[in-house]
Amino acid sequence: MSDICDHKSVGMIIRRDGKILLIERRKFPFGFAAPAGHLDGDTYEHSAIRETEEEVGLKTKKIKLLVEDRKENKCRREDGNWHYWKVYELETEGDLNRSESETKQAGWYDLEQIKEMIKRTQKYLRKKISEEEWQKSPGLEPIWCEWFKELGMI
């Protein structure tokens, strides 16, 4: 991993039993999010497969591109103010086995639970929740609010 942002990110929508897999990030940017990561010199598809295995321990069986676009979103890397994203839907196999260094938790959430997370995010963005409160109990990471809306999921 580089300390300088490559401005290229992948995100993975993974569904099981009508629910969507989300992780709670251990590091900035804090919040719940679909598994995601930088390319770090790899292709978008290989990065999606790699990050899925690294973050949640699942093996990819099928991968399908859903959407791509440039988004203004910060990461913890130097100069990481924007990213060109490709968001995929993955069919996976195996048991959930989250990365303890990257995540606080990982689990399956239905759309109603995700909508509640989005309400918390909206309060945070309106400064009705402090940064300290957000880090203790975050909502959906703002970039994922954008993606879920753009994908018509919420």
In short:
By secondary structure, the chain is an alpha+beta fold. The protein contains four helices and seven strands, in the order E-E-E-E-H-E-E-E-H-H-H. It has helices at residues 44-56, 111-125, 131-136, 142-150, and strands spanning 8-16, 19-25, 32-33, 36-38, 59-72, 82-93, 103-109.
Q: Could you characterize what this model shows?
A:
- The protein is an alpha+beta fold.
- It has a domain at 8-110: Alpha-Beta Complex (Nucleoside Triphosphate Pyrophosphohydrolase), CATH 3.90.79.
- It has four helices and seven strands.
- Strands 1, 2, 3, 4, 5, 6 and 7 form a seven-stranded mixed sheet that branches.
- A hairpin with a 2-residue loop joins strand 1 (8-16) and strand 2.
- The longest helix has 15 residues, at 111-125.
- It starts with 7 loop residues before the first strand and ends with a helix.
- The model has no long low-confidence stretch (mean pLDDT 96).
**What is the helical fraction, as a range of percent?**
25-40%
Under CATH, the topology of the domain at 8-110 is which? Nucleoside Triphosphate Pyrophosphohydrolase
CATH superfamily of the domain at 8-110: Nucleoside Triphosphate Pyrophosphohydrolase
State the CATH architecture of the domain at 8-110. Answer: Alpha-Beta Complex
Mean pLDDT: 96
Helix and strand string, N-terminal first? Answer: EEEEHEEEHHH
CATH class of the domain at 8-110: Alpha Beta
